[in-house]
Amino acid sequence: MVHPRAKRGLEAWYQSISHQEYVDFSALKSTFGASVDYVDPVCVFDIGGNKFRLVAAMHFNRQICYVRHVLTHAEYDLDAWKQ
User: What are the residue ranges spanned by the domains of the chain?
Assistant: First the structure.
């Protein structure tokens, strides 16, 4: 695991995301609140008390979530994940 300190936060995120169906971003936002943002074309989740970012492609029509990146806050701010 690249970021072992993110493990607990990732496990909590996984429990939340896998036990509910989300039909659109507003449904996702109602569960995760301020800890999720839409950054076209992906959703960015704050994980582990805002220490990590999880970048995911959400396919609401198929109920599939593709985790693209798990980054520290500093790595996320570099914007290299956008390429």
Answer: 4-82
**Adjacent-strand bridge partners of 52:** 47, 72
Instruction: Report pLDDT digits (tens) over 26-61.
Output: 999 999 999 999 999 999 999 988 899 999 999 999
3-state SS, the chain, equals: CCCHHHHHHHHHHHHHHHCCCCCCHHHHHHHHHHHEEEECCEEEEEECCCCEEEEEEEECCCCEEEEEEEEEHHHHHCCHHHC
Token pair for 48:
């582990």
pLDDT band at 80 (very low <50, low <70, confident <90, very high): confident
pTM to 2 decimal places: 0.91
Query: In the numeric block, which tokens belong to residue 68?
Result: 């693209």
| Kind of pairing between the strands at 42-47 and 52-59 | antiparallel
Rounded distance, CA 12 to CA 32, Å? Answer: 11
